[in-house]
Amino acid sequence: MAFSWVYNDFGAPQRRVSHILATNSEAFVKGEAVKLASGRWTKAGNGDAVAGFATQKLDAGTDKVLEVALAREGDWYDAPYTGTPDAGFVVGVGTADVSTDGLSILSSDITGGAFAVEEINTNTKTCRVKVKNRQL
Fold first, then answer.
1. Strand partners, 36
2. In degrees, to the nearest 5, what angle opens at C-alpha 110 toward C-alphas 28 and 69?
3. How far is the first Cα of the chain from the last one, in angstroms, to the nearest whole number?
4. How far apart are CA 30 and CA 3, in angstroms?
5. Which of 101, 98, 119 is nearest to 109 (CA)?
6. Could you give the CA distance from residue 79 to residue 13 in angstroms, rounded to a whole number?
7. Do the beta carbons of residue 31 and residue 69 sit within 8 Å?
C-alpha cells in the first residue's frame, strides 16, 4: 500500500499534472510521494515539501512523463506507517515525515515533516494525513 487519496474538504476532485518529465533513470510506484527538482519529478525524502503523488507505475528510463496528483489544500490521504512510533506520533501531530521509500509515513520521525496526522489505526498500521508542507 502507498499513499491513497481519500477526499477533499471542499469537494474538489483530484488535480493531475501529466506534462512534466520524471528524473532520468528513476522508477516510480503508484502512490509514491514526489517533489519537483530541476524541473522534473523526483522522489520526496525526509524533510522535503511534497508536491504530489505518482498516479502510475513508471519504469526507469530517459525523458519519460510521470502523471502526478497534486497535493492540494483540503486533500486527505490514507497511508501506511513504518518504523517504531515515536511517543509524539499521535493524532494532531503536524510534522510527521515521509519514509525513505516514499510510500509511507515514518512514524519514528515527527520533526520537520510535511504531514499532519488526523487518524491512526494501530491494528492495520495506517494513518490518515494531510500534506501541510506542499511544494506547489
1. 41
2. 30
3. 24
4. 8
5. 98
6. 19
7. no
In angstroms, what CA-CA distances link 115 with 30, 74, 104, 126? 19, 12, 11, 14
Q: How far apart are CA 19 and CA 85, in angstroms?
A: 37
Average confidence (pLDDT) per 10 residues, the chain, 136 residues: 96 96 98 98 96 98 98 97 97 96 96 97 98 95
Find where cell 498500521 sits. Answer: 125
pTM exceeding 0.90: yes
Q: Which amino acid is at 4?
A: S
Write down how long the chain is: 136
Q: What is the 3-state secondary structure (H, E, C) of the chain?
A: CCCEEEEECCCCCCCEECCCEECCCCCECCCCEEEEECCEEEECCCCCCECEEECCCECCCCCCECCEEECCCCEEEEEEEECCCCCCCCCCCCCEEECCCCCCEECCCCCCCCEEEEEEECCCCEEEEEECCECC
Residue 133 has a CB neighbour count (10 Å cut-off) of 17
